[in-house]
Write a structure and sequence with these properties.
Layout: H1 3-27, H2 32-60, H3 76-85
Keywords: Membrane, Transmembrane, Transmembrane helix
Transmembrane segments: 7-27, 39-57
């Protein structure tokens, strides 16, 4: 399992998502306390849902083009399908 890769991605994603959600709430006129707690809560919920979905896909062996987590996945099949349709 690519745990190290996922961990780094979540460490990068959390502050970005937290800042985005908190900033939006603050710009909407909410207090700093509310904006920070909102950002913290919803960034954790969002990352937990994303991590759970990713783990589910990984365990089932389902390929995800965005995640690109399955080792040894050969993408030449997709490329030949695209070129044959043209």
């Amino acid at each position: 399992m690519p745990i190290k890769k996922w961990f780094i991605q979540y460490l990068l994603g959390f502050p970005i998502l937290f800042a985005l959600l908190s900033g939006i709430q603050y710009l909407k006129g909410r207090s700093w306390d509310y904006a920070l707690s909102f950002g913290l809560l919803w960034s954790l919920i969002s990352l937990a849902i994303f991590a759970g979905t990713r783990l589910y896909y990984y365990r089932k062996g389902m390929y995800c083009k965005v995640c690109n987590d399955l080792p040894g996945q050969d993408l030449t099949e997709d490329k030949t399908e695209l070129t044959s349709k043209e």
